[in-house]
Amino acid sequence: MENQENKISQEQLEELQQIVGKLNNAASQIGNLELQKTSLIQSASEVQVDLNKMQVKLEEKYGKIKIDITTGVYEPVEEEENKEELIGPEALKKA
């Protein structure tokens, strides 16, 4: 009895290797994109902290204001005198 290997054709093997290679490449690219995404999220978070600090500085100097980001023009934000903030069951009682 001859020991014969069960083997796909060379052409099929090359096609299979090419497809698996493409899949591995795509998975690698996805991993790299996830790393970039994580880095960008961290950077955006740091910029948000900087923005919050800037807002505090501006509020200390000018009070509560609304700023047009393209021109720098600002106007005060007026709080309503009789404004009531209702939360929960109290809101239903006053309605």
Question: What does this 3D model show about the protein?
Answer:
The chain has 95 residues and is mostly helical. It has one domain (10-79). The chain is 62% helix and 6% strand. The chain has helices spanning 10-62, 89-94; strands spanning 65-67, 74-76. The chain has a two-stranded antiparallel sheet. The model has no long low-confidence stretch (mean pLDDT 88).
Number of domains: 1
* Largest sheet composition: 2 strands, antiparallel
Strand order of the largest sheet: 1-2
Average pLDDT works out at 88
Distance between the termini: 93 Å
Any idea what the shape is? Answer: rod-shaped
**What is the string of helix and strand elements?**
HEEH
Structural class of the secondary structure composition?
A: mainly alpha
Give the total of beta strands.
Answer: 2
Count of runs of 4 or more consecutive helical residues = 2
Strand content: 5-15%
Helix content: 55-70%
Quick tags:
95 residues, mainly alpha, two-stranded antiparallel sheet, 6% strand
In short:
With 95 residues, this protein is mainly alpha-helical. 62% of the residues lie in helices and 6% in strands.
